[in-house]
């Protein structure tokens, strides 16, 4: 009887451990009013680099009217700029924008390495971003107010690392 319980308990722990990463990925989303921000992440920075970047796996506006992201702030950087990325031949160019429109439904791309996408540019980092770190960013929206999100620092996947960024 005791051995049967031990086997069942070990099996239960094994299943829970296997499902934990799936649960954590799905749990890493935030809502600001009707705006949902899915999995904010930042690539690690290399020594000497003073700027960093925050991406989202997704953003959507589940409300009945459009919204806009107006600004962002964090204690890890002097300031944060909203940027749009666009390919110019083989070069990825970035430019600061005043706000980011969020129509109803799925929002614009905030994914790493995509053209016509957005990101948050962390200006003058106070310390390098190291893989496994987490930090807070406060996003301010026109209609949905301000929301604190937790950014995970991890290596980016599925995008070319040879893009050159120019402003």
Layout of strands and helices, then pairs:
Blueprint: H1 2-27, E1 29-32, E2 35-42, E3 52-61, E4 67-73, E5 77-88, E6 91-96, E7 100-102, E8 105-106, E9 117-125, E10 134-141, E11 145-153, E12 165-166
Parallel strand pairs: 2-11, 6-12
Antiparallel strand pairs: 1-2, 2-3, 3-8, 3-9, 4-7, 4-10, 5-6, 5-9, 10-11
Q: What's the CATH H-level superfamily name?
A: PCu(A)C copper chaperone
Chain-averaged pLDDT? 83
Query: What does the radius of gyration come to?
Result: 19 Å
What is the CATH T-level topology?
Immunoglobulin-like
Helix and strand sequence: HEEEEEEEEEEEE
Q: Which shape, going by the Cα principal axes?
A: globular
| Poorly predicted spans | 5-26, 159-167
State the secondary-structure class: alpha+beta
How many beta-strand runs? 12
Major sheet description? 12 strands, mixed
Task: Give the total of domains.
Answer: 1
Helix content: 10-25%
Ends apart, CA distance between termini: 69 Å
**Which CATH-level-2 architecture?**
Sandwich
Number of alpha- plus pi-helical segments: 1
Q: At the first level of CATH, what is the class?
A: Mainly Beta
> How large is the share of residues in beta strands?
over 45%
Describe the protein's architecture and organization.
- The chain is an alpha+beta fold.
- The protein has a single domain (30-166), classed as Immunoglobulin-like (Sandwich).
- It has one helix at residues 2-27; strands at residues 29-32, 35-42, 52-61, 67-73, 77-88, 91-96, 100-102, 105-106, 117-125, 134-141, 145-153, 165-166.
- Strands 1, 2, 3, 4, 5, 6, 7, 8, 9, 10, 11 and 12 form a twelve-stranded mixed β-sheet that branches.
- Strand 1 and strand 2 (35-42) form a beta hairpin.
- The longest helix is centred in the first third of the chain and has 26 residues, at 2-27.
- The model is unreliable at 5-26 and 159-167 (pLDDT under 50).
